[in-house]
Amino acid sequence: MPDPQPNTPMLEVQDLGIRFGGLQAVRDVTASLPAGQITAIIGPNGAGKSTFFNLISGFYQPTSGRIRFRGEDITRLRTHQVVGRGIARTFQTTTIYKELSVLDNAMIGHRVRTRAGLLDALLRTGRERHDEGESRAGAMRALERVGLAAQAGRPAGALTQEGQKRVGIAMALASDPHLLLLDEPAAGMNPEETVSLMSLIRELVAGGLTVALVEHKMNLVMGLADQILVLHHGQKIAQGTPAEVSRDPAVIEAYLGGHAHGGQMGQTADGGNAHA
Ligand SMILES: Nc1ncnc2c1ncn2[C@@H]1O[C@H](COP(=O)(O)OP(=O)(O)OP(=O)(O)O)[C@@H](O)[C@H]1O
Ligand SMILES: [Mg+2]
């Protein structure tokens, strides 16, 4: 599963864009995500971050540009085909089934992301029953990776906010992806939970996964990302290391927008001021 060539692009997008009626939500974005690294995508609300993930994962079809994944053009592939190639994602809003067990959630992740649709997974069609053993094994492997194997039998809703986020990540990992897209994984978490989630992401990357994440919590982004891509009004306005991006005038302007409302760009991992 680990990509054999570190620092070669896992994903490359070229002039990627999508228009919704009169709104160009993503415009001419060219960027690459190096294998085995963590890329953070940041930008103000409505910048196009989730839309960017929706394009990469095949939820939306781009109106311009190309997407290459591990050297293959995946621009026109559908969601399940993209999953099959090795891209998995979590969603900005929690999509776990709180009344089901942690294991059942991970198994749904495995089924939805492998051969059957959500309806099949929920209705347990014949084919699904046949695949039950395989799903269970895949789901347990995913739960082990996120440290939830011991909680497999508990209702997912009984877990902490961070535990539930881990369930969501396990659902994505159940398809055994090369690239994992996390949309605001630390939303709603306290500082301790955020630190714990950061270690999990680091462990996954140490195990060979490539990660891209959208996140507003700057301490997480600054402490975790190898590179940061900054979107503003759908366009890439900066790309670089956390240090480079945090002192980029265009980025500071995008966040502060001329109003000194205490934008988050100055915060480093230890809570200090990056510009001090
Ligand atoms: N399916 C859609 N139809 C029409 N407009 C959309 C659609 N999806 C997104 N948009 C618009 O595209 C723009 C970018 O939205 P997006 O959700 O990507 O922003 P974001 O950077 O993820 O913001 P946030 O930080 O608030 O999550 C917004 O103006 C949004 O209203
Ligand atoms: Mg979003």
Automatic annotation (TrEMBL):
Keyword Nucleotide-binding: yes
Listed InterPro entries: AAA+_ATPase (IPR003593), ABC_AA/LPS_Transport (IPR051120), ABC_transporter-like_ATP-bd (IPR003439), BCA_ABC_TP_C (IPR032823), P-loop_NTPase (IPR027417)
CDD domains: ABC_Mj1267_LivG_branched
PANTHER family for this protein: AMINO ACID ABC TRANSPORTER ATP-BINDING PROTEIN (PTHR45772:SF7), CONSERVED COMPONENT OF ABC TRANSPORTER FOR NATURAL AMINO ACIDS-RELATED (PTHR45772)
Entry keyword set: ATP-binding, Nucleotide-binding, Transport
Domain ABC transporter: 11-258
GO MF: ATP binding
Name the record gives this protein: Sulfate/thiosulfate import ATP-binding protein CysA
Name of a matching Pfam family: ABC_tran
Gene3D superfamilies with a match to the protein in the record: P-loop containing nucleotide triphosphate hydrolases (3.40.50.300)
